[in-house]
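User: Just a sanity check before I run the rest of the batch. Below are the structure tokens for the first item. I only need the designed sequence back.
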């Protein structure tokens, strides 16, 4: 899912990339919420048939996985900050900015699902930021999970009304 895929030898040649498809889906989610994203809707926005997208992705769950991976971007380099507090604060600010740019991300990044290397990299960066504390590695992971959860709750409150299921309330 994350690397180059073999080019099929049969059927029509590919005319777009997974990244282009993900970018189109991100545009829909940013504008209308994650519920508005469907293979049909993305295909319409790309001016292709829905079935043509299945040559690139197996379905919506893969589409959402690549959307998340594109939207979160590369993990931050926190090594320039002088201490763990400033490193973790920088991580929180960058994560918050990412979720501000894509209000659907907090909801898309929960539950059982495929987690991509960029998203894992964000968690690894946060854990590495606090490893020079007196905490054990497990406690560092717990700290990052707690901070991430607090950030998710804060962002979710700020984004109320920006997602279709909240706008109906």
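Assistant: Here's the designed sequence for the first item:
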């Amino acid at each position: 899912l994350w690397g180059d895929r073999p080019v099929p030898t049969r059927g029509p040649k590919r005319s777009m990339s997974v990244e282009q498809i993900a970018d189109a889906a991100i545009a829909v989610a940013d504008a209308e919420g994650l519920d508005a994203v469907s293979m049909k809707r993305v295909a319409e926005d790309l001016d292709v048939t829905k079935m043509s997208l299945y040559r690139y992705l197996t379905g919506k769950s893969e589409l959402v996985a690549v959307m998340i991976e594109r939207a979160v971007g590369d993990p931050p380099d926190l090594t320039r900050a002088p201490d763990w507090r400033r490193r973790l604060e920088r991580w929180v600010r960058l994560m918050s900015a990412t979720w501000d740019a894509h209000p659907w991300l907090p909801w898309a990044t929960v539950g059982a699902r495929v987690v991509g290397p960029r998203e894992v990299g964000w968690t690894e960066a946060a854990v590495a930021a606090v490893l020079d504390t007196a905490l054990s590695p497990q406690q560092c992971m717990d700290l990052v999970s707690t901070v991430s959860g607090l950030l998710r709750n804060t962002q979710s409150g700020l984004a109320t009304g920006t997602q279709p299921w909240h706008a109906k309330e």
